[in-house]
UniProtKB/TrEMBL annotation:
Domain of life where this protein originates: Bacteria
UniProt xrefs under InterPro entries: Acyl_CoA_acyltransferase (IPR016181), GNAT_dom (IPR000182), N-acetyltransferase (IPR051531)
PROSITE patterns: GNAT (PS51186)
GO molecular function ontology, one term from the record: acyltransferase activity, transferring groups other than amino-acyl groups
Stated name of the protein: GNAT family N-acetyltransferase
Length: 178
């Protein structure tokens, strides 16, 4: 499966690719047929790969809802980040997402474009009513991304702001599935 937006391709990592990402990132890039970047995952992203691997192992049929999605910059043929889906829509119709874009590709609209694309896919499921994302209170760049997508502050804790994006009344496709 692949989602396409104007400049990006989004591809869900398989169980094997989740394993490969933590052991040999260049191998993951080659597995996708991409240019090797020399990127090394930080501890937080390595942990996210392990958690997603465990979730996909437990429920392989729903893996697109449980995995990390590669954000691929099509022109450069580079893996520039990930969107993390944390499960199928829950009883309230919520789907929780996380995201990261590599430092050299930030502030170019890629996070907004990638999230808009994945939201189109998420909202194509009739169970999905809300996309939920949390950000650290001092992460102004992420706040800006979410505001561009129409997200509203949902709740706050001492350290985090939880945002939610409502399902549009009329869904215009943000990305195409190929």
């Amino acid at each position: 499966m692949k989602l396409k937006s104007t400049r990006l391709d989004l591809r869900p990592l398989t169980l094997a690719q989740l394993s490969l990402a933590g052991l040999n990132y260049a191998g993951l890039e080659r597995d996708f047929g991409l240019n090797v970047s020399g990127t090394v995952l930080d501890d937080e992203m390595l942990y996210a790969m392990q958690v997603r691997h465990s979730k996909v192992l437990q429920d392989p049929l729903n893996y697109p809802w449980l995995t990390n999605w590669a954000v691929i910059q099509r022109e450069e043929q580079r893996l520039i980040g990930f969107i993390i889906l944390k499960g199928c829509p829950n009883d309230q119709g919520e789907v929780i997402v996380g995201y990261t874009i590599n430092e050299g590709h930030r502030r170019q609209g890629y996070a907004t474009e990638a999230l808009q694309c994945i939201c189109g896919w998420i909202f194509s499921d009739p169970r999905a009513l809300w996309v939920i994302a949390d950000t650290e209170k001092d992460n102004a760049a992420s706040h800006k991304v979410l505001k561009h997508l129409g997200a509203q502050k949902h709740r706050e804790t001492k350290e985090l702001i939880w945002w939610r994006i409502a399902r549009p009344d009329t869904q215009a496709p943000a990305g195409t599935v190929v």
